[in-house]
What we know:
The chain is of the alpha+beta class. Helix content is 50%, strand content 22%.
Amino acid sequence: MTDNLQLKKELLRKCSEHVKVRIDTIQMAMDSIHESKLAETKSSAGDKFETSRAMMHAEEQKLKTQMHHAKSDQEILATIGSRAARDQIGPGNLVSTSQGHYLIAIGVGKVKIEGAVYYCISVDSPIGAKLSGKVVGDQIEFNGRVIDISDIY
């Protein structure tokens, strides 16, 4: 895949796919908790019932937070898809460095396309924050290594 625009589209597609799977998994867990709440009846062991309800509530709140983050990632991807490349590194850029290739989008991690490895990272990640605002020819220091920025797409 030599065309950088096509490569970015494929990386963004894989990020979107990752977010969709996350949302579906979280929704299934939330549905399961909802069903458990409906099926549970108050027993004579009131403390056990209350403890169980409290645990379900805590899990439900955790899932709601995860869903909020997943939906936020989905929104970020939607806005990135419409952004044009620019000279300065920011959301939506594919960046080639002496240490690897990074798509500044959401934190997905390592993605392989046609045998090549790309890292989909958030601008808020440690390396994403260091890369943000840099231009071709700049260097950053990360984990004790100097990284040269060679291309921005």
